[in-house]
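Handout, section 4.2: multi-component inputs.
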Amino acid sequence: MTLLEIKNLHAAAGEKTILRGINLVINPGEVHAIMGLNGSGKSTLANVLSGKDEYEVTQGEVLYEGEDLLEKSPEERARAGIFMAFQYPVELPGVNNTYFLKAAVNAIRRERGEQELDAYDFMKLVREKLKVLDIDESLLKRDVNTGFSGGEKKRNEIFQMAVLNPRLAILDETDSGLDIDALKAVGSGVTKLRSPERAVLVITHYQRLLNHIEPDFVHIQMDGRIVRSGDRSLALRVEEEGYSWLEEEVRNGLVNA
Amino acid sequence: MSDAISTIEEFAGREYQYGFTSEIEAVTIPRGLNEEIIRTISAIKQEPEWLLEWRLKAFQHWQTMSEPQWPNVHYEKVDYQDIIYYSAPKPKKQLSSLDEVDPELLATFEKLGISLDEQKRLTNVAVDAVFDSVSVATTFKDKLAEMGIIFCSFSEAVREHPELVREYLGTVVPYSDNYFAALNSAVFSDGSFCYVPKGVRCPMELSTYFRINAKDTGQFERTLLIADEGAYVSYLEGCTAPMRDENQLHAAVVELVALREATIKYSTVQNWYPGDKEGRGGIYNFVTKRGKCDGDNSKITWTQVETGSAITWKYPSCILKGDNSVGEFYSVALTNHKQQADTGTKMIHIGKNTRSTIVAKGISAGNGQNTYRGLVRVNPGAEGARNYSQCDSLLIGDRCGAHTFPYIDVQNPTAQVEHEASTSKIGEDQIFYCNQRGISTEDAVNMIVNGFCKEVFRELPMEFAVEAQKLLGVSLEGSVG
Amino acid sequence: MSTSQTQTELAPYLQAWQNFLPDRAGEPAWLGTLRRNAFEQFEQQGIPDRTQEDWRFFPLNALRTTAFARPLPPALPSLQQMLQNHPLANQPGPLLVFCNGTFVPALSRLESMAAGIRVQNISTLLTDSPELLQPWLAQQNERQAGPFAALNTAFMEDGAALVLEKNCRLQQPVTVLFISQTLHQSSFTTPRLLVAAGENSQAALVEVFLSEGEQTAFTCSATEFALAAGAQIDHVRIAQENLQTIHISSTRAELQGNSRFASHNMALGGMLTRNDITVGLRGSGIHATLNGLYLAGGNSVIDNHTAIDHAMPHCESHELYRGILYGRAQGVFNGKIFVQLDAQKTDAKQTNQALLLSKDARLNTKPQLEIFADDVKCTHGATVGQLSRESLFYLRSRGIGEEEARAMLVQAFAADVTGRIPLETVSNYLQQMLPLRF
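Output:
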């Protein structure tokens, strides 16, 4: 069954229209990458999918597991299995990482009618994920993202993703501001979390993250629309030649249907 | 306006839980205040002559004073002649054990979650329960007595240990200290007394639970706590009152004395009735609390969580007289609806190498006004004194206010004093981040508020910390839909 | 204040007022009204006492007990000698010299200015073109400014005015020297500075207070700024009078949208110094900077009160005050920041740091925030301490003597404030004025 289906999605921030008809289908197990220049609306798409209320959907629809996604609140979407790794994860001073995650895990479990995890089982789960991702346990004692370096914040996002076990993970510019080691760590983390049940949507400006998370599909977004879809080679061509050849083709009306 | 913000905006208290009244027969004296009333109170309590004289001196002094105008709070003038200064549950007969206490009274405390039945209590907390003006029951007295610890009502201490009371009463807060302390000294009715002898570490939390019940009464209790050389005691105080449309006055005095190497931890969770959403009713909480680190290496820690009262005016303070003595103040003050709080601390450094820490967290919601007022004074002789103060404000909604008035007075060059203050709000992006992890807005706000207060909560004894967290949730609740 | 108090305390001022008024007969009527209202204000408010929160730490008894005379006319030769090599009197740009309340044209330099820029002494302007002054002079709320701003207005004789029309920019700073010549008798002066900056205009002013002679003096100064939208003004204020001087000043600035105002308040002398600086942010996008350095030794008292009123959204204010106290000096810092209900997105930062270098020096500081808007960033910090032992040790381990090492560290501490003055001559001058021993 299709996990996510975006049909002719239009969205605006205030007066400004940003998304102008996005169409995209994502199935379980697939990794999709959306690439594009700054201002092409990539992050807007991620925010609209996760329910940020700064954006107004003016046209189109989004089905998640066959249901209307757009009428759900952000927490309902999260509980239904959508996880967003933020471009700028916020700091929550005084809120302990472990406590925060436990609240999130149990909110999601409650929604699914599952038994809440007690402290013991929760810590077991958390330690297991730390080990898989090769992250130091000291992370558990810290406050959510507070005083973290850019790389630490991004790794914490991937760690949360591992613990919350989403059906659809959206990575919003997760590579921005990372040095090569942090990039590798994040990339390998995401790769480890690939599974036949889980789909991943990677939003990025550069190809370099895709060296570490190999996508099944690559889409190029321009001016609020997906103008070209292909496989990994599309990303490599963009890396080599930039976006101008595509802009040229778009001007000449060569947009994929 | 976004949903997240509107839910925070609605973040304004659900009904006060402890607003019930109890039908208990009481002995009260006529309204008003004069020498005769003071003599009557003293006579009811069968006090020695010296105490009556002390009360009368305090009363005479009080008459020369005027109510302080400087706090950043606004209220209708109190008519001191329209208050009943003494009200006590009528004893059915002479009490010899807890079993003989009015069952209605026991039920009242049960309802408040304070069981006076020793069997049902947490084994590590001893309670002195003060109902209106008098102490009604003290638990675990015998067990404590075995260690030489005296823990009883103030009246009982006057009867049984007059020499101790006489030695320390008014030594930390003299009757002339301020308007409300003078009033209290004149009319105080009861309270708690505790003495921990040399070298004894009190094995359980001592706690006083205050309840105002009767209408039109003021509550003027007095607590005196002495930790002798090398002693340790942790003391908890909790308060509630029924919902009434009139304002009720609570003017208590707490005196702590820590001798050489002694440690006192004094924790308060204050949940007096705050008044309704329009600001009708509620307690005027005008309290003087002060501790004296009298001996070298002594330590006093004040921890307070203030969520109740219409108006709070209190500055638990430390006089750091002994060399190397330590004073600490950890405070969370929450004002919602029309509540006003002007609270903070004074750290007076007198001894050498004295250290103090102040962590004050103010949360303002609704139309609440929250003022931090503090004084750090380093006297000329306080070589090597250190102070660190941090006061942070969290504003929820745009009709509340946060005010910070820290006074710093340094008269010794070797002192190091640092003060930091900040103001913040709960960010929409923080709420959204939590939402995106499946956490509801209400839980997110609670989580962030509790995170904001964490440094204070971790100073509270375990049982209280949980209660305080819940209380904060309750006081802010209602808000998140 | 009761009538009897008024009569005894204010008698000398009343006497001076009665002598002063007839001399002002030729002035425009509007000014007479201002003066009379101001004196009334002063009489009503009286000389504050320590029961008033804002004056708790400032001893004003000297103002009650000393009868300050109106000063003698300036003695030019010695004055000329004094200024000959003074770095601030010789920096480029217009110079206005006032001595004992009187303008001294002989020592001033009023170069011809571009159209739209008027730099002049106030009394000349009052004769020439009073219409230039009328909209601005004493138009800000005198009552709130307290009794001493009112006292200045009542007795104001002369001072400097800078009126800039729209888009006019001054390339060089305007230097204004107010000198108390107290060679033979005490003096009471009321120096005034007025700056009205039109839209997008720009200027820097250096206001300096000096003394010649060792007699007592009471300098009661008032400075007013009105910045229209987009205007940019830097104000350096240097008080360096003798150790018998009582210096009380009120500086008020009203700022409109997108303007930039920076105050650099340098208090380096005097017996009793009190500076009140009040800044009102009346539009959006304003940046206000309040920096200060105070240095006091002996038995001096230096008291700085600043107030920043954020009334509108999206403004920033930054405040840094540093104090150096030695001998038996007493320092007071009170910094108020108000953030009104409408002032969302305010970013206000205030820091006060003080060094106590002797066992009898004392500091009272009270950084004060009053916040009524929720979406704001406000912080304040205060530290009091002595020179870092580690730094001292480090310098000494490199062979630098203790005294010199202390002076170096104090210089460095001060340089963080003086270095923020965008006029190099002035910041260098200030660093040179710091004592070498503490």
